[in-house]
Amino acid sequence: MRVGRQRVVAALAAGALLLGTAPPQASAAAPDNGLVAEYLFNQSDGASVPNRADGSSFGPATVQNLQAGDWTGTSLRLRGGAKTSTGDWVELPDDLLVGATSATVTAEVKASAAMLNTFHFLWNIGNDSAATEYLFASLNCGSGRSPLVGLKTGGVERLFAQGSCGVTADTWTNVTSVVDGEAGTASLYLDGVRVATGAVASTPADVADQSLNTIGRAPWPDPLFAGSIASFRVYDRALTASEIEAVSATDAALNTAEIATKAQAVLTGLNLVDITTSTHLDLPTAGGKVTWSSSDPTVVAVDGTVNAPVAGQPGVEVELTATASVRGQSASQSIVVTVEPSTETAQQRVERLAQQYVVEPVVASGYELPTAPQGTTVAVLAVTGAVLSDGALTTDGDTAVPATVRVRVTDPATTANTEREFQVDVHPSGARTLLAYDRVPTTVAEANNADVALSMHLALDDGESWAPLNENYGIFFPKTASTPPASGTTEAILRSLRNPHLFRLADGTFGVVATRTARGGAADGTQASQVLFATSSDLLSYREVAMVNVGVSGGVNDPAAVWDSAAGHYVVSWTSDGGAPMYVTFGDLADQSTRGVPQRGSLPSFTVDGSGIANFGSGNRVVVSDEAAAALEVRFGRVTNTTVDAFDEVSIAKGSALTSAELPERADLTYSDGSTDTRAVEWDAADIAAVDTSTPGSYEVTGTVKQPTYPTPFADERADPSVFSFDWNGQQKFLMIATEDLNMNPIDPANGPHMPFRWADTIEDLSDDAIAAGRNTEVDLLKAGDTDAYGAAMTGCFWAPEFHVIDDTLSILFMPCYNGSNGRPDMWTGRASIIQLKKDAAGNDLDPSVATNWTKAERVVKADGSILNPIQNISLDMTYFEDSGQAYYSWQMLGSIFIAKMDPANPTRLTSEPVRIVVPEYAWDNTIAEGPNVHVRDGKLYLIYSGSTVGDSYTTGLAMADAGEGVDLTSPSAWTKLNYPIQKSGIFNGTWQLGTGHGMWSEDEDGNLLYVFHARTNHNGLSGRDTFVRRVHFAADGLPIFDLEANEEVSPGNRAVKVTVVVEAGTALDVEASVTTRCVAGRVTPVVRVTNSESVPVAVALAAPFGSKTLTVAAGRSSSAAFTVRSGDLAAGTLSVSAATEDGLSTAESSVAYEAASCS
């Protein structure tokens, strides 16, 4: 068959095939140095498995609950089941690694599909208790986990997991766990390749009690391991990488037939057939599992490049051989490729080659035009709107200008040519440039694990180097491969990306293409033929459009895209798995029907050097406007305080008292992004006392902008914290409650499940420091064994308690749990519940620190009385809020955030059906969205929630909705969720805080908005989550900032403030007085008449030898006061008159002489 385009080497029909299985490559044998136990499970019967390690003092392993059929002859089948069932497991000798400071444990296993989605221990070095110590490995890929090695000592557990699952069910896998005491690391290897590593301070020697070492059985109530095991080895040293590779190769030989079958299945899946072609081939590689060889690489190269004979020459046959390799076992298949002479005309050829010459639609002055595509020459015919200087487009203006570039592309081999004309916006020299890139994953301790690193990051050119935005954290993350089902998001549908490429769309907005991967970076199957495509109007939010099929199957690596304004289409380019450069055109990237024919050839390189960016992977740059760059800096840059407004003068009347109440209460602050905020001011008491209010003049009072510094951590081993400002019968009190999380075991902690409560007059006095200083104590409102309203004993959890005032009643929403089938607390029995504070007969709140003053716990149920979660039973993390007179509950179940209406008068019943409004759909909020909490501000509802599983990778997401009448908050469409976390692990005030999440909005004594949350630490040698407190700032774009550091919140130079206090002498008042006398019963009676000509009333004080009086004279009126003199004679004298306005700022002082009088 003759074809005129690139051929894809795959078909449904069978062709002439040469099949064969290649022998495994020779490799080194598994080492025996340091080998203390080796068990090969290749016997056909018997429960005792001998230890084959030469010279070892340890005896055989024993299969417990062995049944007929468990032995296969090459392995032991492990049937699984509940821990207390009759499922089989292997008991190993005691004390295998007692005293060992390093160790390596290897296992050749095959896990069932169920095991990849549930908690289990593949093996355990330790004892039958999970409380304090063990060394183990697990292949669980469910519940946000992935294959890991874990070491728990002294009650502190450290887990080291790879970024994605990487294990296929029912497939032999070599699992090797290494603890290197000298290096202080723990590592996990799968099939001889290291997939996880991290620092660890403890060693296997710290697992002191090794009285029950096992295969397939956990010290937790996890199910028994289900699958098969072929070998198990224990070394008392850390094997090297090459030795671990040798172990993997040795163990692969135990099941060569099965592994070789897997290799053959890879080839079978390619559907290879013989081919006739005259152009390049797209050779599939099955994600790197297949390599190609050629009998004549000069005609058909191993990357699919075809050198066709010229017209008139005969065709050439070449044999291509595909070889698939799986763990040293391989299978090969050959096909015949008949290469016929090319039928492409000279004009078709130059038109094809010219497609590789594209001028970007938006550039900066100084942009160098692309070089000619290979095999062509390019001549610039005309440039308008800009200047062409030494091959570069330039402009002298300070604004972007439209330009056109017309070129002629010539094929020297045929002299055929074609012309192209591009429309280009040329920005001025020094225009802002944006770098889009991914990173090389490192560790979760650096907030750069694969879930974060494998996303699109952004950095702005600051003129000298790249300045990463968002603290070098991801900004665009791909969504799940499919919409999460009602039962919740699973690991299998989570996705990451590599090699993001940012480009301009035809309308000037932005597009992104990237290679989508499984979570953590492994292939998800799309890389063979597709690219991820998303759009953004502002680079602040992103819309994932589609997976775009580019028409090949041989791999799509390092994709790039550019708008070709000359042709009116997009050009997508990439490199195949075989290393061949490729491209294809699209009229519309969202419309597969507009795709052209994939071609071989290179476009101008779009990649750039990301020097200066830690762990830079790959990326490209685009020119952006100043406005777009500024918006990015507001959203993802650091915001800092720039100014504090000067205070207006404070005037007081002479003689009046001055306290801090007369001075400004808060300082007005301005920030680098244009946002504003206020902070309370603490005025200097000595300066206030120094103001002499009896002496008119100006005085300066200094003060300090208040920035309370809270202890870090605020409270140890207190997760899911709630701090609440409460009006307790007229007194402002601060309440705190949290989940007990001793050593990160919130279900059944070693110190007993309980609900710890604190209250105080200040937030500071809620801290551990206050308790240590004796200023406060902690009490338990609930503890294991307390019964709920239905008489059932609550035995654990007491999770995520939150304070709310519901129907004028202080309430706590929380989740208790009950004993499961193993007689211990089981989180899956948990139900969202409520307790409420009782009141006395007068309606006053009782003391909330007294446990008996609270009602019995009642469960929140649907309107019909049924449970909230009929699928999994568990419901948790319930919160409460109101909007426009309607009350709502929001909570977590099925791994997502749900909402429903409720009536505060009946707080145990919903009044509408639960609706899912936030679902985890990114690698950063993988599989869990929980802990919702709502704040209302300026007509917006801000719902924060926590994503990812608890631990060092925990993050905080944000969903927003409009507040107000007519908004249906129970509709998912009412809520908009950010693509990236609003708060994440990072350095705060100079110290790393990891796993920041499960926060709530709160308020301090001065009315400042607070963020109260937990982070995972090892503080005081404990590994649980601790409470932290920060203040919140809202940026100019309306989004909250939860990590504004102390020097950013208030610049050190702006903390000291001052105000001028002016003591006023007073303004003269138009007040007159006169004295007349008359005789009454032979005595002189002076009468004083006061006239107030002012427009405000005045207070008048009269004083004379004959007496004193005060009176108030209305505006524009007169008043008189009569005095009684005891004698008939009155000597001449003077009357003193003092008048003042009510505010004391205007006064008058006068004296009025009066004559002597006699009535005798």
Automatic annotation (TrEMBL):
Pfam families: aBig_2 (PF20578), Big_4 (PF07532), Glyco_hydro_43 (PF04616), Laminin_G_3 (PF13385). Keywords: Glycosidase, Hydrolase, Signal. Residues 280-340 form the Atrophied bacterial Ig domain. It comes from the Bacteria. SUPFAM superfamilies: Arabinanase/levansucrase/invertase (SSF75005), Concanavalin A-like lectins/glucanases (SSF49899). InterPro entries: aBig_2, Big_4, ConA-like_dom_sf, Glyco_hydro_43, Glyco_hydro_beta-prop_sf. One of its GO terms (biological process) is carbohydrate metabolic process. Residues 650-706 form the Bacterial Ig-like domain. Residues 1-28 form the signal peptide. The keyword NAD does not apply. One of its GO terms (molecular function) is hydrolase activity, hydrolyzing O-glycosyl compounds. Coiled coil: none annotated. Belongs to the glycosyl hydrolase 43 family. This is Beta-xylosidase, GH43 family. It comes from Tessaracoccus bendigoensis DSM 12906.
